[in-house]
Amino acid sequence: MSTTNDTMVISEIRKALESEDSRLGEVWRGDERGLSHAEIAEELGVETSNFVWNNLRFARAIETGDLPTAPSVIRSCLSAVRGFLKRNRPSFSPRTIEVLAARIRELEARLDSSETVELEDRTVREREQDVEALDVPGIYVYTLPHYYRNPLQPADGEFNAGKTLMKVGMSENDVIKRFRTQQRDTVLPEDPWLLRIYKCSADTRETEKSFHDFLRAADHRQQGGRSVGTEWFLTSLRFLDQIARDKGLEVLFRIEDGASEG
To answer: Which pLDDT tens digit goes with each residue over 19-30?
Structure first.
């Protein structure tokens, strides 16, 4: 999709970014002030700065129509643009709403294309192979590709992360080997995708129990039949990452890091 030179549209979008109370707006304003990614993260009280790049990429797509091509970035960007339009629709002219709606349609089309699906699947498999050499205890998270691509509870902008069914398990020895065993021994309709590995230095079994306790306390427990097992939860990666941060766990694998952006 080509970028736009519509002065009115750009002006309305920039005005919204200048005033809206969101992480997207905060990051955009920090960049406008000339702050580095690390400085923006520090100002917002966040330890790592990966989120800064992501939000600036979303802002560029919103402001200029320069849309991403990497599957994981497309998915996140789509949620960001939808949320931005929803939050600011009352202040936008029909023309700006039309432009943003067109960008949403283009992102949806890119996400659903066979090329994107094939690229995403290949990238995930390559990333899983890259961590084969890991020999660490930890918590693993996986899901089925269908659940990842079609969340049971889709994201609503940046405030409500998408929730889908994920298995949260552990290995006291080698996490990736345990995941491979699950792939072979568990009857599933498609090969699962590894989403996270959190390295544990303490009691891994107790850490897993703590994850499950937090998920149940937040009503993220799957409500299903007995045959689905006890480790599948209707939850989000954002929530799981927060648990890991609170417990001081190192993230060794993120599915989002697998794709390069074009």
So the answer is: 999 999 999 999
